[in-house]
Amino acid sequence: MKNFEFKNPTKIIFGKGEIQKIAAEIPADAKVLLLYGGGSIKKNGIYEQVKTALKDFEVEEFGGIPANPEYAILMQALEVIKEKEITFLLAVGGGSVLDGTKFLSSAAEYTGDNPWDILDKKIRTLKGMPFGTVLTLPATGSEMNSGAVITRAETKQKLVMGGPGLFPVFSILDPTVVRSIPERQIANGLADAFTHVLEQYMTYPVGALLQDRIAESILQTLIEVAPVILKDPTDYKAASNFMWSCTMALNGLIQKGVPTDWAIHMMGHELTALYGIDHARTLAILAGSHYTYNLETKKEKLAQYANRVWGVREGSMEERAKIGIEKTVAFFHSIGIKTKLSEYTKDYQGTGSEIARRLTERGMIALGEHGTLTPSDAEKIVELAY
Q1: What is the DSSP string of 309-368?
Q2: Confidence at 44, pLDDT banded by 50, 70, 90
Q3: How does 311-335 read in b/e, with b if 16+ C-beta sit within 10 Å?
Q4: Among residues 9, 86, 267, 270, which one has the fewest Cβ atoms lying within 10 Å of its Cβ?
Q5: How many other C-beta atoms can be found within 10 angstroms of the C-beta atom of residue 209?
Q6: Is the pLDDT of residue 38 over 90?
Q7: pLDDT band at 43 (very low <50, low <70, confident <90, very high)
Q8: What integer best gives the mean pLDDT of the chain?
Q9: What is d(CA 377, CA 379) in angstroms, rounded to the nearest whole number?
Q10: Looking at the DSSP assignment, which residues form a beta bridge with residue 92?
Q11: How open is the CA angle 9-171-265, to the nearest 5 degrees?
């Protein structure tokens, strides 16, 4: 196991009816900016609950943060923060709203001339404006980590940011919100969380027995609850396990002391930037081809995964590893997610070379847990996913 440090300061408030506790978590003299997405929270009752909880605070609102939070729109919100002298941010939504709020948390304290530099120049945020979250869509784990991904439509860029100053002060996780989520978004959440675990697990063994087994338990839980929550999103037991699994998949715990990959995400971000494909679906498109291309370096963990998660006992290590890949693709299919790029766009020819070019342009020339995957390798992986 590798050396590591771990600190996660986010307070989690989990359970039915817990949105009412917001007021106790925000400084009494705070000027709050309430941030949300397309307005679904006004249809499912969450907005009303949040507003009731904030009745004693001075509150401004900013809605309309889109999926794949858009830089130009976030800059409008930044103007509100400065004009209204906001001191606390409250994100009510899924990963896109939460990620957008993290950018705003950073940008509000940034002293440079161009906030885009935070992303473009990979500036870590050591101190941001304090913020809390009310999670409405389990998927990204953004409610308990310090990372974010922001899109800039005019340049077709989707870049990552982070730093210890971007952990939420608190996050409220009420599983009853799942009942109002469309089936497509539930499927996306399942795929997103599943791939988050794989990116931290599907590398090579380093004797981190507990991290491996926690990762495997999250995968097994997602597999178990997937058909239940897709069939009946009002099932509180399934919703609770789904929501907590998504949080645990990316709160930093299972990546400590182990090598991590993230190549699927780096390539997937480019697919979203180019074609607007849902983030989770880009991961499903690339997972099978990525593991097939890197079978030799990943086969030990792939075989372990096939054994422990899918119960594959027979065959050589390589045979079990290949079955593990097949089971992964089949899982995505079982939740209604297609896994070939040609099923999403007719303009897929040349995508591999374009992604290779974009990765080279961004300096991403050494991807994967070994740092040996080049843009040329990425091109071949994407082509395998056509």
Answers
A1: HH---SS-HHHHHHHHHHHHHHHHHHTT----GGGT-S--TTHHHHHHHHHHHTT--SBT
A2: confident
A3: ebeeeeeeebbbbbbebbbebbeeb
A4: 9
A5: 10
A6: no
A7: confident
A8: 96
A9: 5
A10: 134
A11: 80
The pLDDT, as a whole number, for residue 40 is 86
Looking at the predicted structure, is the pLDDT value of residue 270 above 90? yes
pLDDT at residue 243, rounded to an integer: 97
d(CA 381, CA 386): 9
The angle subtended at Cα 26 by Cα 25 and Cα 29, nearest 5°, is 145
Q: What is the pTM of this model?
A: 0.95
Which pairing describes strands 131-135 and 170-173: parallel, antiparallel, or unpaired? Answer: parallel
**What's the distance, CA 382 to chain centroid?**
21
The first and second tokens of residue 137, run together, are: 């869509």
The candidate with the shortest Cα–Cα distance to 7, out of 162, 145, 159, is 145
Average pLDDT over every residue of 90-117: 96
- Give the DSSP per-residue string, 225-266: HHHHHHH-TT-HHHHHHHHHHHHHHTSSSTTTTS----HHHH
Domains in the chain, CATH or no CATH each: 11-176 (3.40.50.1970), 183-384 (1.20.1090.10)
Does position 39 have pLDDT exceeding 90, yes or no? no
Tokens standing for residue 145: 């980590």
135 DSSP β-pair partners: 93, 173
